[in-house]
C-alpha cells in the first residue's frame, strides 16, 4: 500500500504564512475531498506537495512511502508517482501535445513505449475522454477550451498512472457532459487503487465519485474532518457554521498565485535533455 503523509506542514507565499501546521495521511485506493473557503490553503497544499518553488516550506515533512519528498525535484516527484491536475493548465506553444505526452510517459518507464504502442494507447485514451484525436497534433493546451484543457489533464493522469493524483478544481467550468466523462475516468482510476486528493467547491463532482474522507481547511489549518455529510452541510449552509458551531473566525483570502502543472515541468526537463 502506498502512503502519502503530510506532517505539521508550514508554507509561506510571498513571506506570508498560508499553511500553519497541516497534517494528514492519504493511502492508495483512498479519495480525500479538500474543501474550504477561497484562499485558505487547499491549492497551496497541493502546490507544496508538487514542489512549486513559489511556495516556501518553512517546516514540516512530506513523505511518500517514507521517502522524503522535500529532497526531490519536481521531475523526481512526478517519477515517484505524484501528479497534479490543474485548475488553469498552462499553454505551451511549440510543444506538440502528443510529444509532450510521450515524453512524460517514457520519462517514468524503464522501457520506453514504441511509437506504435504509444499511439495505440493514446488513441484509446482520447476516445475514453471524448477528445478528438486531431488535438494530439496541436500545441499543448493552446487554443483548447476550458473543458478540453481539464479533460486533457485527466487524460495525462490516466496515461501517467500516478500513485496519487492531486486534482485542483478540475471540475470548474465543465458542462454536465464533460463532468460526466471526467467523473467516470476518476472512478475507473479509483478502482485501480489510485489515491486522490480532490479540491472542489461543488458537491456535484464529489457526488459522482467515491469519497472516503472529507477535510475542511480554514485559515491554513484543518478545521473539520469527517465523511460525505460534511459536503452536504457546506452545500446547504456554506461556511458560516464553521464560525457559529466551532468558533473559528474566517480570515481574508490568500494572495492568488500562478502555477505550472507538474506535467509541464517534467516534460520541459525531458525535452531539454533530449529524452
Task: Give structural notes.
Helix 2 packs across helix 10 and helix 5 runs parallel beside helix 6. This protein has a single domain, classed as P-loop containing nucleotide triphosphate hydrolases (Rossmann fold, 3-Layer(aba) Sandwich), CATH 3.40.50.300. The protein is globular, with a radius of gyration of 18 Å. A hairpin with a 2-residue loop joins strand 4 and strand 5. Helices cover 38% and strands 27% of the residues. The chain is built from 10 helices and 12 strands. By secondary structure, the chain is an alpha/beta fold. The longest helix is centred in the last third of the chain and has 16 residues. About 7% of the residues have low confidence. The strands form 3 sheets. It has a 6-stranded mixed β-sheet with strand order 6-9-10-3-11-12, with helices on both faces. A 4-stranded antiparallel β-sheet has the order 2-1-4-5. Strands 7-8 form a two-stranded antiparallel ribbon.
